[in-house]
Amino acid sequence: MSDEPLPPIKIKADCLPRDFVHRLNKMVASLGSYTPRYEKDFMGESGFDILNLEYTGNTQYKDFIVQFICVPNDAEYVSFEVRASRWVPNDPPTYDEYVKVASEHGKRILSEYNKAHSSRRRLSIPSKEKLEPKLSPMCDALFSRFVNLANKQALHPLDWNRFYEFVTYCKNRRKYSGEDIARLLQKEGFSAQYSEYIGSVYRHLCEFKRYF
Cα torsion at 187, 192, 197, 198 (round to 10°)? Predict the structure, then answer.
């Protein structure tokens, strides 16, 4: 089982993102191997459009689909994802496996789009190194103090106090996700399950602090 973070892949549209996704929806049938399903204003959210492309070709992945996602308040980029209900050999996939599959399908579809619209759209994929969370010097010092003194099996009250100090300082200076914190904790010897739990506490504390 892989615990590597998967990259957020984006495409800079050559028109409004919603129009870009609509163009893809009209042309993808000509490619074969994909059955499109276009969902406008998904879940009732205006401007949140998803083009799901069910892959009908041969694949080792179960229920494999390609997605182009237009999100509200982003006037430039469309998100690109590949999904499966079961990946092999690793579920979830590693960074390299995910990028390989995403690139194969993304490049094929965008190649046809570029020909049809005299464009040069491509996938923008962040490197594996850029996905690793990096703490600022002061946040890193507080985090190190917390993990070095913590009982990694079950945090004691003083451990939680040091964690709250870390959250209080870092929340106001840089945005880290609960997943970022969980990955950092796991690297420091916390179990995957406990890391995810503490990461979820971090996320909830950050949300709570937004109201005060």
Answer: -10
**9-126 topology per CATH:** TATA-Binding Protein (3.30.310)
For residue 89, give every residue at least 6 positions away whose Cβ sits within 8 Å of its Cβ, in sequence order, or none: none
In this structure, what token pair is assigned to residue 86? 């079961």
pLDDT tens for each residue of 160-183: 999 999 998 887 666 788 888 998
User: Is residue 20 within 8 Å of 80, Cβ to Cβ?
Assistant: no
- Residue ranges per structural domain of the chain: 9-126, 137-209
Coil, helix or strand for 101?
helix
Query: Phi/psi at 34 (nearest 5 deg)?
Result: -130, 135
pTM above 0.85, yes or no: no
